[in-house]
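Progress against Task 2.4 (sequence-to-structure conversion) is shown through the following example record, which the project officer requested during the mid-term review.
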Amino acid sequence: MINMYNVSNKEQALQYIKDIRREIGLVSILFVLSMVIGYVVAIMYPDMVMQSLEELEGVVELLKHLSLIQIMFLIFLNNALKSLLILVLGIGFGIVPLLFIAYNGYFLGIFSHKILMEQSLLYLMGGLLPHGIIEIPMVVISAAIGVRLGLKGLASLKGEQVYLKEEMITGIKFFFYWIMPLLFIAAVVETFLTSAIIGVLSQL
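Structure tokens generated for the chain above:
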């Protein structure tokens, strides 16, 4: 019988996290490795880096015309929708969340190299840590739940008894109870605190 979680309860939510620790570990390792690869690629192929970062220019132009509140909600909706999608689409053997994490780690590695070449380690940390310590774990957990669903789907194809529907419901409930609110907090921090820190560091 499946272990059903009342994820609105803090203790059971923590137990759920503990029970998917292998998936979280796998996703975390993939994220770090992808980030290292991105950083190395940025060193070896600087022209490729510039092409990869061109997509940011359009985003920056868009943000210039928005208010801080609009930027905050745009960041939140972007992160929340993507996190929910990789969770749900993980049902397809966990491929989508793994690809998403690999791409984002790779891109962060490239971006980090660019910032370090133009600014400093303090500038990079100031721009990533305030909101990243909330946002990145939430995205990783979303991907880990997606991978868990994918593994359960594979197990069902092998004839093993799994409770895929219950697993999906638990994952989605966890998202709405914990991940989405924390992503909102991360968006607030990124919009108001991170931008303020970057502004200060830019003057040094």
